[in-house]
Write a structure and sequence with these properties.
Two copies of one chain form a homodimer. Helices cover about 45% and strands about 15% of the residues of chain A. The longest helix of chain A has 22 residues, at about 260-280. Chain A contains 14 helices and 15 strands. In chain A, helix 1 runs antiparallel to helix 10, helix 11 runs parallel beside helix 13 (about 340-355) and helix 13 packs antiparallel against helix 14. By secondary structure, the first copy, chain A, is of the alpha/beta class. In chain A, the strands form four sheets. A seven-stranded mixed beta sheet of chain A has the order 2-10-9-8-5-3-4, with helices on both faces. At the A-B interface, helix 1, helix 3, helix 4 and helix 10 of A face helix 1, helix 3, helix 4 and helix 10 of B.
Chain lengths: ~375, ~375
């Protein structure tokens, strides 16, 4: 017997009852029951993003919604500052290049988050900039940007702030309206603990004003079409009906547990994982670690590919490696989805076993004990 | 007790074992098992499209793949002839307008398919045209275009032929390589009898040559990124893993039943439905009827909205109405997905009951008997 457990920062483990909820008989989307379901989902998404803004649901990956937000909010004449501090941040620069959007890429060392000071300096240097694009939780490096602080600046200057919240929303504190974020994006396969296939964009009135001022150069990811269909809680193109049912089902559970409760629990898992890494003699990669995913530096003498392979083949734990320049240098563990303290102890135990197998010297159980101390304190 | 039965031309009914196959525990996509599954799916898609071309899998609706095909195959300098004979055909004109693609829309009366003569004439009139875009089965009118005949012309002239096969592929004869179609698109929620959420595009070398000659003005639907990821049977953006597992599962069944067997069965359901309509005194709308969906003209004195409503509320049958100018004028019945002769007798029985309830005079059972005669002949 071998259980497969996903510790990848998306896709994540999905609760069995959610999978079965989605396995119920198909229904059509041009029906009163679909519209009612979509309407309820829309209110739940508003809770998730902590906003009164319009929440759009795309059948696609997070990239589809983020592409829609960027091309909609950056019509000709605008200029975007795109923070570039990881693989996903780089993708938004690529969107700008693909669509011919005027922009400046602000390079920040991988593992670091964007700080208000960085943004302020870059904005001061170029008065043409009117938009900031930033990744809240950069999944490739497990670093967190201070979007609350950055929003104060963009708000003051009357600029738009577009945030990739793909591994942030539902995992770490996100308060779209209170902070003043103009567009926030997430995907189904992260903290929403669903399979991949849906993406969500919350878009406020300031962003709509900009979007409506230009012509959107895309059809499938055109935010305007999604907004229009929301008048009747319809969809512009055939939506993934079972996943939408799953999203409503999951978010009802999120509301019951409360976002604050989930943020606290996720933070506890991250804190325990970081404490375990330190106790095992490993370094946490990110200088500004986020609580939704932890990246550990693979120690000298340990083969990262072999480590990940054994984690899966021998113990059933699927973890993630590094991307781009970080390939072979880090391993990443998710704290999102259907995962709790006891699952997390499991993956840490498997990590200890695999590190020892590769000749890395550590006291067996030291990581587990450190994690357990965090859990003990948190569960008091 | 009331069973809900979908007779809408997508989403369609999905077999219970397919839903449960997709409800199996989530797995990650950057794994050997995903790549193996994707590789097998790719071979099965080649069977489905009857091609040796590259088959790309998008997480999105059919519109996403069709947008990718059109913008990729129509770089600046090219000019497309877009047949416009229904709501979906109109959408491809809209894609051309959105992306600034030079094109001519060829209007053909709704309910009619495009014929080789129409295309020949239009091409003769404008030597700048180098691409033809046509819908094989126009779902909004239930009309079939002669893409085999059209392909002879485009092939002779060295042009590209891009075909929306969304309600054609897997339902009616489609022979991409034998006919010489350059790009064919379908979606998961039609003849593949899956939920919505995936789209597939088969793209041949002639099309790739054109695509590689230009710069694609989209990121999420960029065919090149999907082709590149196929080198390792990967995906450029997080794919809908359960639906991909479902697609492989369904197509294994399709191969076992054989495409020819499915085409014959679908044609039988369509023939029976058309015979039933005639026996009930109803007119089939399309002049060139397709076998994947049948549109009937709503007779004088019958309220289409009320008819469809009662079909669902009283008898559990979800059928489709008309779109655009056909709203209120036709009703449509699917012959795709998890539907057989006995289900079809059910929807025809419900239709007789609802027509009578609205005061339409017909001999009860006449439609059923006509359908049964077709089934009797076919099942000999």
């Amino acid at each position: 017997m071998k259980k497969i457990r996903l510790f990848t920062p998306g896709p994540v483990m999905v609760p069995e009852d959610v999978m079965l909820e989605m396995a119920r008989p198909m229904d059509h989307h041009r029906t009163a029951s679909y519209r009612e379901m979509h309407k309820e989902l829309h209110e739940l998404l508003r809770y998730l993003f902590q906003t009164q803004a319009t929440c759009l649901t795309f059948t696609g990956s997070g990239t589809s919604a983020m592409e829609g937000v960027i091309v909609g909010c950056c019509p000709p004449g605008s200029k975007a500052l795109v923070v570039q501090n990881g693989k996903f941040a780089e993708r938004w620069v690529k969107v700008c290049n693909t669509f011919g959007i005027d922009h400046t890429a602000l390079d920040i060392e991988w593992g670091h988050g964007a700080k208000p000071g960085d943004i302020q300096k870059a904005l001061d240097a170029d008065p043409k900039l009117d938009t900031v694009i930033v990744v809240h939780s950069e999944t490739s490096t497990a670093a967190r940007s201070d979007v609350e602080g950055i929003a104060k600046i963009t708000r003051d200057r009357g600029m738009l702030l577009l945030v990739d919240g793909i591994t942030a929303v539902g995992a770490i504190p996100v308060k779209m309206d209170a902070w003043g974020i103009d567009a926030y994006v997430t995907g189904s396969q992260k903290a929403m603990m669903l399979p991949p296939g849906l993406a969500f964009a919350a878009v406020n009135d300031r962003a709509w004003e900009r979007i409506d001022s230009g012509k959107t150069p895309t059809l499938y990811n055109d935010l305007k079409a999604y907004r229009k269909s929301l008048d009747t809680f319809d969809a512009p193109y055939t939506p993934n009906v079972p996943l939408i049912r799953g999203a409503k089902f999951v978010l009802e559970g999120v509301k019951e547990r409360t976002l604050e409760g989930i943020w606290t629990e996720t933070a506890m898992l991250a804190k325990a994982t970081r404490a375990a890494a330190e106790a095992m003699g490993l370094k946490v990669f990110a200088a500004d670690p986020v609580d939704s995913v932890t990246a550990m530096v693979v120690p000298e003498g340990v083969d990262e590919a072999a480590l990940r392979k054994t984690m899966r083949s021998k113990h059933g734990f699927q973890i993630a490696g590094g991307q781009g320049d970080l390939k072979g240098k880090i391993v990443r563990f998710s704290h999102m989805g259907y995962v709790d303290a006891f699952d997390t102890l499991g993956v840490l135990a498997a990590l200890e076993l695999c590190l020892q197998e590769q000749g890395f010297r550590l006291e067996m159980g030291s990581g587990l004990a450190a994690a357990q101390r965090v859990f003990t304190e948190a569960m008091k």
